[in-house]
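User: I'm new to structure prediction. If I give you an amino acid sequence, what do you actually give back? Let's try with this one:
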Amino acid sequence: MSKRLLIILAVIVVGFAGMVFASKNNASEPKSNGSSNYYGKLDSKVELTEFVDFQCEACYAFYPTVKEIKEKYKDRVKFRVRNFPITSGHQFAKMAAAHAQAAAMQGKFWEMHDKIFEGQKIWERSQRPNEYFENYAKEIGLDMTQFKKDLEDPMTNAVITADLKEVNRLGGTGTPTFVLNGKKIDNPGNQVEAFEKLLDNALRDAGVEN
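Assistant: Good question. You get back a string of structure tokens that encode the predicted 3D arrangement of the chain. For your 210 residues, that looks like this:
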């Protein structure tokens, strides 16, 4: 057998082994449809989704506005928050998202969501923001042993990955990205009145009385 043929066979064998290894790895990765962090009227015909980056200054600025709108329309609109950590500019964004998702596993996503945003200007300057996140978890009454397990659970990362794939599919390029009834919309501006107009129009088009 020629040396050239032996080299070719070796390359084929190595390539095949690599394909098998990759296939096994992919098979072991959990599948997720993304986060399911809802608020408000869950059977509403109008759903407003916000894709957030917890370290994003714009998301921080929108936080009080969106919170006010959620409270005002919670009896008529279904709200959802999904993950869009832009790690190229925010080194702790994915860490924050993972801690929020771990809290969601114990039914306290919104409590952690609020804590993380309200403390953003403190923890983002730290070299150990996870210590702040763990303190938030204690403050909202999480089972810390379970919380730490959920942080390490591959499903937590799979949820974030699924959210990222979805916002990319929708054409989201920055945060916050808003989606109304499954369609990305232009940023309505950081005013309560702008969101009110947006949701009032959507409710009217859906045949829901305001």
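You can read the tokens as a compact description of the fold. Here is one thing that stands out. The first helix runs from residue 3 to 28.
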